[in-house]
Specification:
This is DNA polymerase III beta sliding clamp N-terminal domain-containing protein. This protein is α+β, with helices and mostly antiparallel strands. It is built from two helices and nine strands. Helices cover 17% and strands 35% of the residues. The strands form two sheets. The chain has a five-stranded antiparallel sheet.
Length: 128
């Protein structure tokens, strides 16, 4: 069965996402010289036995954290690391949806009551 390509879409518990971001933040520079280094790359693919991962790098080291999440669309999504962590940390315990619409370059995070759009798009490119 072929997956429908709708862009990356994860359904994840707040605590699981917070733990993965916390691990990756150890590798994110406080004042990155390249804007992409200030974020994390969330990657998910429909392959048996493969779970989504969150990756960060400072060009000397790379951190990869597994993410227990239900994958509903495959792809890659760049998110600003500290801003995403701060937002997730302040939320009450809940289930989050993180994703990117197929025709949109804006990543988004949603809870049952709120939706947050990020100003940067996939792979750290500025939204047009």
């Amino acid at each position: 069965m072929e997956a429908v390509k709708t862009g990356l879409r994860l359904v994840v518990e707040k605590g699981d996402l917070e733990r993965a971001l916390s691990v990756c933040l150890r590798c994110v520079p406080s004042k990155p010289t390249i804007s992409q280094l200030g974020g994390v790359l969330v990657r998910g693919r429909f392959q048996e036995g493969e779970s989504p991962v969150v990756t960060a790098t400072d060009l000397d080291a790379q951190v990869v954290a597994g993410l227990r999440a239900r994958l509903e669309g495959e792809g890659e999504l760049w998110l600003p690391a500290r801003e995403t962590f701060d937002l997730v940390r302040r939320l009450p315990e809940c289930t989050l949806e993180v994703g990117q619409a197929e025709r949109s370059t804006l990543p988004w995070t949603a809870t049952a009551k709120s939706r947050f759009a990020w100003p940067l798009g996939s792979a750290g490119t500025a939204a047009a």
